[in-house]
Design brief:
The chain is built from 15 helices and seven strands. By secondary structure, the protein is α/β, with parallel strands linked by helices. The chain is elongated, with a radius of gyration of 27 Å.
Length: 387
């Protein structure tokens, strides 16, 4: 009865592993990102390995020479999975060579090491190598790969425990399925495709040349005066360059085209670090942040609300930092009324506090007839600076 249960659970494990392929391949067709194709085919071979071993278990086959057949499927699958990890950080060729060396080393050790326990330990090398690779990326690139690390850690510990008979065979299959569920959630997470691009951009742009030393002021009002436009442009330009050196994204939101592209001609930073959002009438109401260098949105506080929320969500998911420069707050207040703009900012304060997003809003106090209205905004700010 126990053998039947183990066989059934292993069959379910194998079928579930095979299901990765159609799901990841469909994402690959939409995104054309090779990571999904490599992992999809890798898990396909991984699943084939499990199904073959299920047949061996059912037929009571234990010959090591025959068991090498599914093991080679597994090694080939792991080669593709490891290459996919390299694709994440734009190092696919390097990890392909490394992944080809791993099965070669395993095969050599398999035929040279005679003890059974050592052979079982050698078989766990791919699992351990994948965990170490993902952990390395997580630590060095501050990328949100937590689900991947947890999933592969579960698979590694489960297989090591099963190999040395520390875990019952039935629970080995159950834990393996659970670990793969975690991996499937991680790979099919809607914003994961953004993470792939973000890691590549990080590597292309290089390491930050300055340390991030933000004081923690999430909402800053920048007091300016009419007639000092050149000083404002220079302040914004310096801010963009400084953020770029720290690998911080800058999103400049301009209201009613008060700043034109020609005004920012001296900005010479990577497009992955600098984005411009024009807020004008007849703009778009549907948009996808960080997919375009220059965007146009409708002159609507609801659309601005969605934009800021999307930026906060994106930076939380990808563990990156971003500064939003709003040019300018006063024009929004004059157009939409202080109550609506105040309600918008008030709703964003708590989100900003718990995020890696900093909002700098330029404003002109002397252009507001009622001083108490603008004073309400100043009480919201963490800091008030001047140009």
């Amino acid at each position: 009865m126990n053998d039947l249960v183990v066989t059934t659970m292993r069959l379910l494990n194998g079928l579930f592993t095979l299901s990765f392929f159609p799901l990841l391949y469909s994402i690959y067709r939409k995104t054309q990102r090779r990571f999904y194709l490599l992992w999809g085919v890798g898990f396909l071979l991984y699943g084939v390995n499990i199904l073959i071993r299920t047949g061996f278990l059912y037929l009571k086959i234990t010959a090591l020479d025959i068991e090498l057949i599914p093991f080679m499927f597994l090694l080939t699958g792991f080669t593709l999975i490891i290459t996919g990890i390299g694709e994440l950080i734009n190092r696919a060729k390097m990890l392909l060579l490394v992944s080809l060396m791993v099965p070669l080393i395993i095969v050599i050790l398999y035929f040279t090491v005679q003890t059974y326990s050592m052979g079982q330990l050698i078989a766990q090398i791919p699992y351990i190598f994948i965990c170490i690779s993902l952990l390395y990326i997580r630590v060095n690139f501050t990328a949100s790969l937590d689900l991947f690390i947890v999933g592969w850690a579960i698979l590694s510990l489960t297989n090591i425990g099963g190999a040395f008979e520390l875990i019952d065979k039935m629970y080995v299959e159950i834990f393996a399925i659970f670990g793969k569920i975690v991996l499937l959630i991680g790979t099919t997470y809607p914003r994961f495709s953004f993470l792939i691009d973000d890691l590549r951009r990080f590597l292309i742009s290089g390491l930050p040349s300055k340390y991030i030393t933000e004081p923690g002021d999430k909402l800053v009002l920048v007091n300016s005066k009419p007639g000092i436009r050149n000083a404002e442009i220079q302040w914004i330009t310096n801010k963009i360059h400084d953020n770029s050196e720290k690998s911080i994204k800058t999103v400049l939101i301009t209201t009613y085209d008060l700043i034109s592209p020609s005004d920012l001609a001296t900005v010479n930073v990577s497009q992955e670090h600098f984005y411009v959002v024009r807020m004008i009438q007849s703009g778009r109401s549907v948009f996808d942040i960080f997919t375009e260098h220059m965007m146009v949105i409708n002159d609507d506080l609801n659309d601005l609300d969605i934009l800021v929320t999307d930026i906060i969500t994106f930076t939380n998911d990808t563990k990156t930092s971003c500064q939003i420069i709003l040019y300018n707050l006063s024009s929004l207040i004059h157009t939409h009324g202080w109550k609506r703009v105040y309600t918008f900012l008030l709703s964003k304060v708590s989100l900003l506090k718990s995020s890696n997003v900093y909002l700098y809003a330029l404003y002109y106090p002397k252009t507001h007839e009622i001083e108490s209205d603008i004073a309400k905004f100043e009480t919201l700010a963490d800091k008030i600076s001047e140009i």
